[in-house]
Write a structure and sequence with these properties.
Blueprint lengths: L2 E5 L6 E5 L2 E4 L1 E2 L4 E5 L7 E6 L22 E2 L22 E5 L1 H4 L5 H5 L2 H7 L3 E4 L3 E2 L12 E5 L5 H14 L3 E6 L11 H4 L3 E6 L2 E4 L6 H18 L4 E4 L13 H16 L4 E4 L21 E3 L1 H12 L12 H10 L6 E3 L4 E3 L13 E3 L4 H5 L13 H12 L4 E5 L19 H16 L14 H6 L10 H19 L11 E6 L4 E6 L2 E6 L5 E3 L4 E6 L3 E2 L7 E3 L3 E6 L5
Parallel strand pairs: 8-9, 8-21, 9-12, 12-15, 15-16, 16-17, 17-20, 20-21
Antiparallel strand pairs: 1-5, 2-3, 2-6, 4-5, 6-7, 10-11, 13-14, 18-19, 22-23, 23-24, 24-29, 25-28, 26-29, 27-28
Helix pairs in contact: 6-7, 8-9, 8-11, 11-14
Length: 580
């Protein structure tokens, strides 16, 4: 007979509703209520608190077939056969990760439709698929960062069974799977957890009320988070998590929640016999996140590195607004590539204070930081949601790709960037509540108006066309420059696997030369030299050797004593003698 249990220290009375029938529950001294009720494996159920007749979903619900406001449905993870016993897993360090949004990756916007594109991803050469949040949120479509039932899988994507099918299909093809997990706030619609217990704290963040990590009864809230994290990896065979905005996790206890998650993930990894990875999104530039626990750190596997993105993007695009203000020079680009962080205890004009801390490059390999030319935030959080491919030429896109994929860092692509997708990735939502829909649209316009954008140009997140515009157009793959850029990406990714020097993870071995005025830069990784001309004028670059890959028809060995001639917005990758 199945047991139903819920942590609910707030109400005086909790009853269980199973398929419309009420059952008494027994309260424990620990705030947990329990009841054993015979029912079907797919029974619908929920909880009734005190005298309120509303049936609320289970905070640990695995499935919400009718949405986040309705009854939960039983789903037995142990009954699911993932059929991936041959998958031994791998760490994300040094890998190439492909970030995608399930709803816009394909026309259908489902897990099953994504399976049809996996052979393409294998051919591209990526190692992992990273899914933007798939936990349950209100509405049919959205980015997923307003989830309210963290244990459930968004039903329009295919629910938990669809996710299992996608993971199984990835593993059969040798692809790992990562999930973007949001533990720093809850969404605005369907969050009934405060009725059950003290899940929220008095500290808010830009997206809502914070989570109670250090206040009274925080131990059970922390277990709620930790068990959710472990569940993705244990029950769904996920290979790791990207932890959203960890700087918004306010925790002043002696053992930070991130360290606790990392410790228990390592223990689960030992039990399962395969690597499990944790990736932090953080704007703190704090090495403690990726420093081993035995050296006083939290022991996470890797961290998104926005400094690398900013340094590459500004140097290529010329943009300097907002948080790009301190970036843009070739010197800044070179420094960031060689040191991981640009702001490392240095003054940030955007923050009006010192920011970051130096990375010990003798202790922490470059593979614990992630390099990317763009991501969902760097596109979607622009007023128009325009990709770099919508305002840069293909040569500039190739330069950005060479700098990110040619670096020693773990690399990440955002879906469609590899062929220069012409479609934007805009911020979209589908809140059913009219007042929330209006507030979201008006808030979005006001936010960008404060940054100098014309509010009338900001797409309405609630307009269905905003969502539809953001879907990839796969027909572009075979078109001229799109196909050429895709081939270039495939070549760069292949070099990471075929050239031994490209696997060296230590920044101390990376040599970077540049010319500020002529706008060229060279990364030397052992015998491999990656030369990029970021400017519009033809330049001589001190690189020669066997050509491994190129963009823009550079002329090798004809630059006199300099080595080679690179036209504007071009790339040359050669195999030379050690360090040149």
């Amino acid at each position: 007979m199945p047991e139903f249990a819920v942590w609910a220290p707030v109400p005086k009375l909790v009853r269980l509703d199973v398929d419309g029938q009420l059952h008494d529950m027994t309260a424990g001294d620990d705030g947990w209520w329990r009841a054993d009720v015979d029912c079907a494996p797919d029974a619908r159920y929920g909880f009734v608190l005190d005298d309120d007749p509303a049936v609320l979903p289970d905070p640990r619900s695995a499935r919400q077939p009718d949405g986040v406001h309705e009854r939960s449905q039983r789903w037995d993870a142990s009954a699911v056969q993932c059929s991936d016993q041959q998958w031994s897993g791998r760490s994300i360090e040094g890998a190439v990760i492909y970030e995608l949004h399930t709803g816009t990756f394909t026309a259908e916007g489902t897990f099953d439709a994504a399976i049809d594109k996996l052979d393409y991803l294998v051919g591209l050469g990526v190692d992992f698929v990273e899914l933007m949040p798939v936990n349950a949120f209100n509405g049919t479509h959205g980015w997923g960062y307003d989830g309210v039932l963290w244990y459930a899988v968004h039903e329009p994507y295919g629910g938990p069974d669809g996710l299992v099918r996608l993971v199984r299909a990835c593993h059969r093809r040798g692809l790992g799977v990562l999930i973007d997990a949001v533990f720093n706030h809850f969404g605005p619609s369907g969050n009934y957890l405060p009725k059950f217990g003290p899940y929220l704290s008095a500290v808010s963040n830009p997206w809502g009320e914070g989570v109670n990590l250090a206040g009274p009864d925080a131990d059970e809230v922390r277990r709620y988070i930790i068990e959710c994290a472990l569940r993705w990896m244990r029950d769904f065979h996920i290979d790791g998590l990207r932890l959203d905005a960890v700087h918004a996790l306010v925790d002043n206890t002696a053992i930070h929640i991130l360290e606790e998650i990392a410790t228990e993930t390592a223990a689960l990894s030992a039990v399962l016999g395969r690597p499990l990875s944790l990736i932090a999104e953080s704007d703190l530039n704090d090495p403690r996140l990726i420093t081993p626990r035995d050296r006083g750190g939290y022991g996470l596997t890797a961290q998104w590195d926005d400094d690398i993105h900013h340094a590459i993007h500004t140097a290529v695009s010329g943009e300097r607004q907002g948080y790009y203000a301190d970036f843009g020079s070739m010197a800044t680009l070179a420094s960031t590539l060689q040191n991981g962080y640009f702001h490392a205890g240095t003054y940030s004009s955007f923050r009006h204070r010192r920011h970051g801390r130096p990375l010990d490059t003798s202790l922490i390999p470059a593979t614990r930081l992630m390099a990317y030319t763009t991501d969902h935030d760097q596109v979607g959080n622009r007023a128009l949601g325009d990709r770099p491919s919508q305002y840069l030429d293909f040569g500039q896109l190739a330069v950005k790709a060479a700098l990110a994929l040619g670096s020693p860092y773990t690399a990440m692509l955002f879906m469609g960037e590899e062929w220069g997708s012409s479609h934007p990735f805009q911020f979209f939502s589908s809140h059913p509540e009219p007042e929330l829909a209006i507030a979201t649209a008006e808030g979005r316009k006001a936010e960008f108006a404060n940054h100098g954008w014309d509010a009338d140009d900001v797409p309405d997140p609630q307009d269905p066309q905003t969502f539809l515009r953001s879907k990839l157009d796969w027909d572009e793959l075979g078109d001229g420059e799109h196909a050429r850029l895709l081939a270039f990406y495939r070549g760069l990714i292949a070099l990471r696997d075929t050239e031994p020097d490209m696997a060296d993870p230590w920044l101390g071995h990376l040599v970077v030369d540049y010319d500020e005025d002529e706008r060229w830069i060279v990364m030397r990784r052992g015998r491999v030299a990656i030369a990029c001309n970021l400017g519009e004028q033809t330049v001589d670059v001190p690189v020669s050797g066997e050509v491994l890959l190129q963009w823009g028809n550079p002329t090798v060995g004809s630059g006199g004593t300099s080595g080679s001639v690179l036209p504007g917005h071009s790339v040359l990758v050669t195999l030379t003698g050690a360090n040149g």
